[in-house]
Amino acid sequence: MPSVGAKPVYALVGTDSFLQLLKLREILAILPPDVQRTDLDGEKADLAEVLDECRSFAMFGGGKLVVVRNADDFITRFREQLEDYCAKPSDSATLILRCESLPKNQRIYKAIAKTGQVEECTPPGERMLGKWITDHARAGHRVQIAPQAAEQLAQLIGADLGKLDTEIAKLALLADGKTIQPQHVAEIVTFQREQKMWDMTNALAAGDTTEALRRWRHLLATEPSSEFRAVTWMGMWLENVRKALALKRQGMNPFTIAQQLKIWPRENVQPFFKTAEELGEAGVARALDLLATVDRQSKSGVGEASTNVERFILELAV
Fold first, then answer.
1. How far apart, in whole angstroms, are the C-alpha atoms of residue 17 and residue 304?
2. What are the residue boundaries of the DNA polymerase III delta subunit-like C-terminal domain, all occurrences included (predicted)?
């Protein structure tokens, strides 16, 4: 295997994109820094393409990481072959299947659990949300948060873990090494700031690169921590765009889709669907691939995070 601590196969199961991305980062952290990563779309990927990537040798010896997003359909189409692969996985690659569901009574679940690991990416319930905020603040941001402040965040934002992560990052800067208190939450949790990121992504999808860059630089100037959260935010945004297009194909109306995907406030709904139509499925897939490259480069020290995001904006427009 590429690393002593890494499993050869993972299934990241759940509808919460943030938790999947968080778990993916945890896996990346135990892989060699020079691991060769390939991202594939499970709705279009062929079995041979995926297995060839897993079984071929990495060019620079750091092992291979193969991530299949939207893997539900991929698993359905190639269930038996994947069961066989999981029984005898490649010893030089890590395969990650990102899917929304994987019943425990299915053979594929048991096969992955035997040689690899199944990670449940399900948001905590209302009663456990405050504890999740406390734990994530400590583990993800190295900051303590008072119980009252955690509950206040839970009430203000709910179980939208991506938004909670963004706000905790801001609060950590404001607290400056001290415990986050309720007054910090009252001071910094403003949904208007997130509107700036919406405006940037909408300009990007509309093909207005100049405006997207202007908004990104303004966001950096007003909120420097944005450079460390932009990739996660844009990854979740693109995942929502992909899900919206899929739900629309199934005949679901925009209002119901917006409710299901928690697109808010209301004035963001129309621009979001306009963005989704302008990008299309092919555009979303390309954007996700570009974003994965940017994220990998930032983590490996290739360029500044803010500069890498600018490059993503420019390359997406090409």
1. 25
2. 194-316
Domains by residue range for the chain, with CATH: 9-120 (3.40.50.300), 126-189 (1.10.8.60), 192-316 (1.20.272.10)
Q: How far apart are CA 37 and CA 24, in angstroms?
A: 12
* β partners of residue 40: 68
Query: Is the Cβ–Cβ distance between 39 and 288 less than 8 Å?
Result: yes
Tell me if the bond preceding 103 is cis, omega within 30° of 0.
no
- Which strands sit side by side in the sheet containing 9-13, from one edge to the other? 36-41, 64-69, 93-99, 9-13, 117-120
- Would you state the structure tokens that stand for residue 173, as one six-digit string? 């800067």
Spatial separation of the C-alpha atoms in residues 288 and 36, rounded to whole Å = 17
The pLDDT tens digits of the residues spanning 238-269 come to 998 999 999 999 999 998 998 888 776 677 78
CA distance 53 to 280: 27
